[in-house]
Amino acid sequence: MPAMADEDTYLHMAVTPLPQDTFFPWLATSSGHLVFRPMWENLTTISPETGVSTILPQLAREWDVSPDASEYTFRLQEGVEMHHGWGEFTVKDVILTVDQQMSDPLAGCKSPLKKFMGYDSMTEMIDAGKMEVIDDYTFKMTLAQPQVDVADWWFNILVIPCAAVRSAAQHAAEGDAMFESGPAGTGAYQFVNRELKEFTEYEAVPYDHWRVNPEFKRMRISTTPEDLTRLALLLTGEANMVDVPKVLHQQAIDEGMEVFESPLPTVGLTIIPFGQYYVSEANWNPDSEPWAAPGETGRLVREAMNRAINREQIINELFKGRGEPMYNTIFHDTLEGWNPRWAEEFDEKYGYDPERAKELLDEAGFPGDNGQNRFFVEVWQSSLPGLPETIEVAQTVAQSLEEIGIDVKLVEVEFARALDAFRDLHDAHFVLPVRQTIRQINANARIYYYTGPTNPETGLPNGGVAYIEHQIYDDNYEALLRETDPAERNRLAQEMGDHIYDNYRTIPIVNLRSTLLVNPEEVLEYKFGSLTGVFGHLEYAKAAQ
Amino acid sequence: MAITTAPAPASPATEEAAARTGALSRIRHWIGEIRRLPLFPVTMLLVFLLIPAVFAELIAPHNPRRGDLDDRLVPPAWSDDVVSVRTVVERVNRDNRQNEIKLSDAERTVRIGDATVVGKAAGDAPALGDQIQIVVKPGGQAKYLLGTDKNGMDIFSRIVHGARLALVVSMMAIFVSGLIGTVLGILAGYFGGWVDTLVMRLVDMSLSISLILVALVLAATLGPRIENVLIVVCLFLWSRYARLIRGETLALKTQDFISRAKVAGSSEIRIMLRHIFPNLVNTIIVLATLQLGFVILLEAGLSFLGAGIPRPNPAWGVMVADGRELIIDSWWVSFFPGLGILFTVLSVNLLGDWLRDRLDPKQRNV
Amino acid sequence: MQRFIIFRVGQAIIAVLLVSIIVFMLSNITGDPTSVMLPMGEATPEDIAALKAKWGLDRPLHMRYLVFLGNAVRGDFGESYAFGGQTAMGMVMDRFPATLQLGGLAMLIAVVLGVPLGVITAAKKDGWLDYQGKAVAFLGQSVPSFWLGIMLLWLFAVQLGWLPSSGKGGLSHMIMPAFTLGFFQVAALLRLIRSSMLDVLDTEFVKLARIKGVPEWKVVWKHCLRNAFIAPLTYFAIIIGGLFTGTVIVETVFSWPGVGQLAVGAVRGRDFQVLQAVVIIGSSIYIFANLIVDILYAYLDPRIRYT
Q: What is the pTM of this model?
């Protein structure tokens, strides 16, 4: 432990280790880049209170989009300082950042950015005359294909840090070594020290930051694998803010700690009955799984599975009430395409009713032997980062399905193994709880429902992961990428949502607010949430004294 | 040499009869041994391992793979409720926080049913200044003797069924490795030459592999499975049998009754089966008993690391692992399954020690 | 003697090769790491193909093994899948000192407690102390170390608050994990020393020393102990094996940032590069430790060389 600096306010956060950890941001996938958050800024941003529905300017002061979504002009903030004396932020830094993200075949942003940029880097775009640097603070891009979500997704707070801006000047001087020695960004905190898999240390910038001067002058984010250890760090005063599973909260509350909760739900838990491959039928036998059977049979079975589950009990007991029912997978009332009918009709259509569930299974043609052994299903369970309760949810779901006469085998797997089954092979014959980050409809639709054109050699879709397939989802997703009219976008998204909801394509469970346990004697207030998880907006945390 | 070595028959002609009386006297001897069994470890073994394993369905009051979410983390039956009364405030005052509760938390606990507002109808929303009665730690329930885990599964039932799992898995592992090791050991000792060299080199290899690392590789590639535990234990254990049995066979080979059997024209297989093997039974039994405790511990350790028996099977190691994070408030989740392992292994080890002293004192160092 | 050493070294090398083949094959036939490495929903089949080419996953298995072996001999186990830009070897080496510290302290505890207890219980055979010693030995071999660790944690960190619960820090962080790890070894050492002391105490030369009037303490602690040390050497393999297994478990229980914790993390994240490095380096150490003991033993007791 570093000595707590005398009267300096010190924020020590202990969090679950990230699934991946690297010094090099372009290699950081999914949540791997999150500990970079305090030191970097993006062109645009979001706030914990409004979430992804409202896009706010950050390093981009303002931007214009042509009506066909193919021309973007960004005007950048002026007078923003780079850390460690690396000069003023300009368009050069944006170019370096994007080019670096696209430099490695492993980089997560490479292929989607290339798709709409049409080139392998911004530099190539400039050479080809498709991007124009008007002055140090203004640039204009002409995209190869229309893309509505450049500002609100790709240059925003992302799954992958495509545009978390770092210093071009530093890179020119130090090369990639800068990431180990101390990369410069523009955030309110600057890099001090980092030990992979252990901790990262930051300090408030020594000058007036253009947005906010943090109350906590020093900060340390430790990654600690065991839940109990993190809790103990908080209780012994070694850390003042930790994330632990909700089942452990009471232990800390009894000791006088407080629970901080994100204003909006940040993550959802939904259950996918896999194998509904109606577009690419590779490895799919329509008779093999009752829940994936085409037409009415599959629909009835899936309704029965939905009705077997007591969501209220799951939310109250497993999540201690810190969640709200999810009405439709990937949709939320703060997002495009929301249909209020889904919530209103939910009790009637999805409500807990094991008796009705049994009738539905009889009706679907699975009476079993006196209502037992109707059919067999494998429920896979894997511990998902940031959502440790998934294991218990899977066990509860397995029990609920057994109660309506379905034979269940619970299989404990690594999530990556399940990913193999449906991504590479399209050969998933199981039911699996998955984590769902609440983000823009485009982004989630691509991951969950978009199949894309089918590869003629393998018969497998090109689009990447598809959880549930249907031609409507493919068509509407592609239309959404081009459509800029809000009303039409809403209609496209809602049509997709209605189809998923009315056909019981998924088993939505719960949307959860993120929580942190905090020592109230040291931390007064911290608002977090949405895509940035518990790492966003740390510069706004308020100290208790 | 083992205490019960068969007496050398007087002549090749009476060999058959002598073997039979040898068998009879051994049975008689065994009955005597059982009467002399040490009371304490045997009782413990019966209570903690054998009786639960055999009669699990009769003893366990609940299904070990099924829980009730409404009864999560219920403490052992003898614990009392801990109730506290707190005042609802806007923001918890740090100096007096034990007596105060934040409005949002108060609303949530009332909604979930963990609390009632004093002086209001049940379920009514709390307001600032209300007194609220919270069951901070609900007490035990008679139907859950040792409490429940975070899935609301009965710990007592899981321990009882876990005994069966532990016994079956370790017995299978010991049987398979014992069989392989004994066969190879006898072959190596009896034939010598290249057979011996080959077997002994394999033994050296097996002894030089770290089993925990193999187990981790298997877990990473194949996922946690019962088969992995069997593979790892067999890879590791067979060589111990082979080495010991080979040595005993070498010693037996030079005995007169073996050479006499050879002269009488007994086949090699017959000699190994009828003359050598019976003289090794004590050694094998002692070693198997001594290893049983070790194997149970190993299986539990692997399951604890997530490299052994997968959830939701009631494996003791998994149960201890599940309770680790809950240790501050719910000590019983880890405590009782671990205690089960301790008692079982202790009794097996005591029994093994006693057997060894009686049957095969040579193995004292093993 | 020379022939014996050459023979045993050759055997050890074959064992290491065997381990490397098993680990490599197992890690490579059960699916490839691309799904762990590529982000959900962002990767196209072209990305996956590019990734496979980069890691050489598109070549036949035996070719990949030869390349892997060639690199491994030079200490290069490739880059970690999960921790971009980190070499697997570097990650193992970073963690190694922590494991060594923990193992060293555990061994120290084992020797400081186990050896004297073994000697005393043998010298006072069937006395009160002998029974106490036996109880310690039985408990040590019967208590699951992961459970003991958790119970210590509950008592000393949660209830009493005397010791930090986990993580790496000063000596206070090491007490509980080292004791948990060492307890099994205390029991093992106690039993070994005791039984071999009993053998030595029974020999002619001890009787002779007693007749000569050498004081009893000197007989026990000087003449006997030296000779009694040879037998436990043979069981060094068991002790090292226990230490290996124990380290992995104890590091997990106490979040000790050592090689064991790295290995368990690599299993969970299917980080095969790191797992291969840990297993091959770990097995090599284990195999060569055994080799040295064998040679040492052959040197001390020439009879075993030719059996």
A: 0.82
